[in-house]
Amino acid sequence: MLHTLKHERSHIVTRLGVVSAGLVALALAWTPALAQGKGGVLRIGMTAADIPYTGGIPDQGFEGYRFIGFPLYDALINWDLSQGERLASLVPGLAESWEVSPADHTKWIFHLRRGVKFHDGTDFNADAVLWNWDKLRTKDAPQYDARQAGLITPRISTIQSWRKLDEYTVEFTTMRPTSFVPFQLMYVLYTSPTQWEKAGRDWRAFANNPAGTGPFKLSRLVPRERAELEPNHAYWDTKRVPKAAKVVLLPMPEATTRLAALRTGQVDWIEVPPPDAIPSLRQAGMQIFLQSYPHNWTYALNLSRPPWDNKLVRQAANYAVDREGLCKSLLNGTCTPAIGEVYSGHPWFGNPKVRYEYNPAKAKELLQQAGYDGKDKRVKTSVLISTSGSGQMLPLPMNEFIQENLRAVGIDLDLIPIEWNALTQRFRQGLQHPDNAQLGAMNVSFNFLEPWSAFTRFFHSASIPPKSVNIMPYLNPEVDRLIETAEQEFDRSQQDQLLTQVHERIVEDAPWVFIVHDLNPRAMSPKVKGFVQPQSWFVDLTLPWVEE
Amino acid sequence: MWSYILRRLLFGIPTLLGVTIIVFTLLHLAPGDPISSMLPADAPLEVVLMIKQQMGFDKPLPVQYWRWLTRVAHGDLGNSLATRRPVLNEIRAALGNTFLLAISAACIGFTMGVTLGTTAAFFQGRWLDKAVSAVAIAGVSLPHYWVAILLIIVFSVTLNWLPAMGMQETSGGSSLWTLLRHMILPSIALSLIPMGVITRMVRTSVLEVLQQDFVLTLRSKGLWARTVTRHVMKNAAPPVLTLMGLQFGYLLGGSVLVETVFSWPGSGFLLNLAIFQRDIPMLQGVILVLATFFVMLNLLVDIVHSCIDPRIRRT
Lengths: 548, 315
Hints:
The structure holds two protein chains of two kinds. Chain A is of the alpha+beta class. Chain A is built from 17 helices and 21 strands. Chain A starts with a helix and ends with a strand. Chain B is built from 14 helices and no strands. The radius of gyration of chain B is 24 Å and the shape is globular. Chain B is mainly alpha-helical. The mean pLDDT of chain B is 86. Classes of the chains: A alpha+beta, B mainly alpha.
């Protein structure tokens, strides 16, 4: 009896031991995953109506770079998107270091990172760099792709030639000495030459099965439906191996669909939730992310004819807009007032002489000085606006709000809505084109990621269409000189000071009515962890993961 | 019969050519251009012109049209400007998805329409007739994108019974059950218009037949109600069938709004995308294929007519 009891006890103890050991093993298996915080399928509702081009330089604007370009590929110089406190900065990517030749400022030497492999297992080296530049710039090269070239040509126009110095060193030559080169090279993403050969030398076939060097690989592509990205566990930057087990990108152009998909748990993250929905999303426990980034929603004015050829009228319009009211009452806090091209606190904001606070009395006074009494003689003008469009926020109600603000001070603004595609076509023609000459302004939104995008293309006299998009056109020899000096200044802090002076002059001259900066709203399920909202158009998709 | 079908098919060719010419002209008359949607807004005009030249958009319109038509004659609808993928493959995939919705919406809409319309006609003037007529008018009048949003709010967001968008699990899983669950809400939203239109047409047609002398004769001879109804339905069928053919054609065209609201990757979604991207080869291809469907469906309806009523064949 005793023996049986002992035997049973020992049997129970053994069983308990086995069970406990199993539980401990299970816990051990779980603990690292939880402690490191990774895993889960991250499903993202994009605003794009289709998956951006996956074969290299993406289309669909910066949303294409955000979700396809930078996750699948690397540039020689990447963005550091790991923090949100400061403006995103450039960090070494496929190049470990670079320098401009002290003897000749048109020569840039890039030292490539060793040991980097494309997703197809082939080496990234100097030959791959040259091959990719020929893809974009050498029209008779077999790999030349006009579509990818068209997307990027304006941004890399100062690079004249490229050559290999050794297996891991490349030299770029620019048309003139320019310190803007690093900002240009971050747009060029590197694709595998071998994979392109395997795809039958066809960029369309390559896009179905691409090979870059980025932290993610494309595992599935269903046009207009989904793209699935899986982690590249052999990524060269071990700190940026993706934490999520899979990222699924879903095109959802309709804002209400994105909202419903988030609320029903069909997606974990949506881009640009409708401003009206933000309070209820917060109530439902969703995470709302808002952050300043280089975005400007503005009126580019026709400076070659009345009324906007008069600086006093331009400044009056800038004083007449109630930007705080627009952001608070109409857009539920998803924007901040713009009193210059860049926002206050940005390295190029400086200390402009004029600050465009909401001041209708001052606006009326300036209009009086310009000869408009606000009663018998009112300013009559027009603005071409879009009904929707990339980065355009909520163009119709926003423009009606501004129309009312301007009417109150004596400016009668005629809103001319057209479709976004048609507006971009007329924007490129410029306001001096016969089709546009009668217009007072165009309402468009821009990025000011880097000096060329912020200043050269809009405010330098050499950028008048068809060369670039100084559409007003704004002609100021002093600003030309400052931009040129900044371009040739290789010390970043000195360069920032020069660009600050450019900005201060532009704010004072008011070639635009500065209106708002978008805050890049996005909403996420509480299950999404580790996401960082940087001060950028892009995000680091390697950081977030999903709690199962 | 075969010569009738052949004759109708031959008549279809000039119809389709006319459609392509009208579409081509309208697309090029509309403001905006295909290159603008491919490039960033700040791309200089020089680059735009270069790409336009490379893609042949700098050629005169008749030359562009002739080139396109020659390729179509060889079975090649060209490549999408936006995605670079062959238009034919894109249309095939999208039409397959739309076909699923069209079939289910037609099943719901046609069944409901015939049932409600017949009931209303047999109960003419009573409260049931009035109630059915109200439902039919609501079906025709309510904007279906609004109904779609309402269905999402009620059944997806509030009750969480059905998915709000797409046609498979967002995390990647797919099965027949998943597909069916995703089809329910868009099918209901799409079925409302055919349901309303067919209810009204069936009611009118059945009422018209019910007032004819032969029905009175059949009834006075003491035939069963079921037999009388069969005769009535057969005589009321031709206009209803024509309408069903047209409605099915509309459904196959895909509803731009419903497919966009539900992110359903069908032909309506594709058409919407192509319009905004000024994807001319895609637009021409989709419209040509849809016009062909309409011509074929009309032919099919006429054949069914002639089977029901042999007098049509002889005319």
